[in-house]
Design goal:
By secondary structure, this protein is of the alpha+beta class. The protein contains 4 helices and 8 strands. A 3-stranded antiparallel beta sheet has the order 2-7-6. The protein has a 3-stranded antiparallel beta sheet with strand order 3-4-5, with helices on one face. A hairpin with a 5-residue loop joins β3 and β4. The longest helix is centred in the middle third of the chain and has 10 residues.
């Protein structure tokens, strides 16, 4: 895609915005121009048809520990020790983008604190098959009856920048 002066324009797409687009800031020296951007509200969301519009998944502390190991952020020896002795894993969201997507997250383990950024977070919350989490637009709740069980309640699929493909279909 080119602009009116023939310059290439970076265009991004994603599957499902989940109701919130993640706008990239335009650099002051950029020659890019944007058309008018309406604030998204419930009446402007068109991606409700997507199977990823809203989702909930369950994960255990064991799943999360295994993911940290597969990412190389903890050693297999640490995992074995924690599994044998018992451990507490706590999750803390440190920052969100203006779209609500999680930007930084902290994982607290015995004698260790791990900081995760955007894509690392999606890998950390991967399913048992290693498929990264759909989106960083989520909240985390701990089960009141089982502190080792986490519920991830989320929206969308993809990075949320550019055109929402399911939104285009819905529109």
């Amino acid at each position: 895609l080119q602009d009116s002066s023939g310059q290439l324009v970076k265009v991004q797409y994603h599957s499902t915005c989940g109701g919130m687009i993640d706008y990239l800031p335009i650099k002051p020296d950029s020659h890019q121009k944007l058309g008018s951007i309406q604030d998204q509200s419930e009446q402007n969301v068109h991606c409700e048809l997507s199977p990823q519009y809203r989702w909930v998944k369950q994960m255990t502390a064991q799943n999360l520990l295994d993911n940290l190991s597969s990412m190389g952020l903890v050693t297999p020896a640490q995992v074995l020790t924690w599994k044998n002795q018992g451990f507490t894993l706590q999750l803390e969201i440190l920052s969100r983008k203006s779209s609500g997507r999680v930007e930084k997250m902290k994982v607290l383990l015995p004698d260790q604190e791990i900081l995760l950024n955007e894509w690392q977070i999606r890998r950390f919350l991967a399913d048992k098959n290693g498929n990264p989490q759909s989106s960083n637009l989520f909240i985390i709740k701990t089960s009141p009856k089982n502190p080792e069980q986490f519920y991830i309640i989320g929206a969308g699929s993809g990075h949320g920048r550019g055109m929402c493909q399911w939104g285009a279909i819905g529109q």
